[in-house]
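Collaboration report, partner site 2.

Our partner group contributed sequences for two proteins of shared interest, and the home lab folded both. The records are reproduced in the order in which they were received, starting with the first partner submission.
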Amino acid sequence: MKYNRIAIVGVGLIGGSFALSARRGRLANHITGWDREDVLAKGVSSGILDGVEDSFPSGRVSEADLVYLAAPVGQIISFLRDHSRQLKPGSIVTDAGSTKREVCRAARDHIPGDVHFVGGHPMAGSHNSGIEFATEDLFEGAAYAIVPIDGGDSAAPASSGSNAAAEQVAQIVRALGGRPLFLTADEHDAAVALLSHTPQLLATALAAVASQSRNPAIGLAGPGFYETIRLAASRWRVWEDICRTNRDEIASALDLLEKVIDEMRRELINGDLASLGRKFDEANEFTERLQTREESVKG
């Protein structure tokens, strides 16, 4: 499997890492990018990109056989709305957006019938952003959601063309070292609300509370605290679109978490340490199962 030309829209951490990993796997003869001029200059000078993808800003039809959208969710949706007619007939378009329902809806509304769109989301990344943090092994061992557009908001069966494109994207993910997981947009957005978006809000909340503390002993913060608030370094410009497009699922996950935190508060006040201890035991068991599964996958 090799493409003559891959175009990457948004050449930051994810887009840059995709380019490096695709180059390592020899997935393309030519890799271009579209982003700010300074980002593209870094990409070309560092060898991450072969050149600039100038078709979309100029209004021409792109020559890319595969288009990888690695911009923030709002920009992905805008691209699908404004540039879908510039996609090469027969090409495959996939994205790396952190939410899928709105992206898939925009793709269904705007992508021409002779272009194949497959939603995607790599569960890999960092609180750092920018092309300078791109690495060729970012996707190694990482779960990677594949969301066929025909299954967009429901479990509706996908067409044969959509199935073929989705399987091709899954092959790309495997070539990058990732683990493809086929989901509907609904399944994806509910899962990441709990596994990714809520942890971000929790880290942000804890950092906000600590920043407002007037206790001089705040300097006692150690590795455990820093590890817990690591995500709080993530920028709002990335998370604004995520919160806007997945607010219902995030709110539901926060409701569930609030219920458990309220139970823990009452157990502490009432001295019911046995019940609190059982929560620790359940959490320990769950964490150990996840760690064992992760080790077996990487092993």
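Second partner submission, folded after the first:
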Amino acid sequence: MRFRIEQRFDAPLEDVEDAFVDPELVAELGTHVELGAPRLLRREVEADGDVVHQWIAHRFTGDLNAAVRRVIDPKRLTWVEESTHDRATHRTTWRIVPDHYASLLRCSGTFQLEPDGGDSDGGGGERTRRVAEGEVKVNMPLVGSKAEKGIVSGLEEHAVLQAHVLDEWLTRRRKP
């Protein structure tokens, strides 16, 4: 199942991009159970500083359809998000690597950051748009498409919460 998710942030592109590769933001996101308590496992910055690789552990916090729960234990739905952030193009490629059920799930995609013009109240502040495009495939007869829809729904909910946390985090960091 292909998907597209848009997020908007009340901050300039550079600030948003810096945040997504800042270990402190991952630690902040990790305090939010509803976001799966992400945890930074590893971070590597290439010599020029334009490319950042990250490995972030996640766990599923949504609801699973009863048919899916017959074959999938929600407690074992953990994974690592492997991502490469290219700061020159403002593009991130990512993939999900399941800790369990690896033969059942494939998920990967991109995030693209772009300026989003002034703020909605006409104050002229910079905003940023982040567009996620990807594909999720669940290899389970009869219930695979339902599981895919559930995963995408969870990703959409996650994106809304993540945008809220990021905006608050950036606001706190801007204050003297």
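Feedback sent to the partner group on the second submission included the following. The chain has one domain: 2-174. Strands lie at 2-9, 39-45, 51-59, 78-86, 91-98, 105-115, 128-138.
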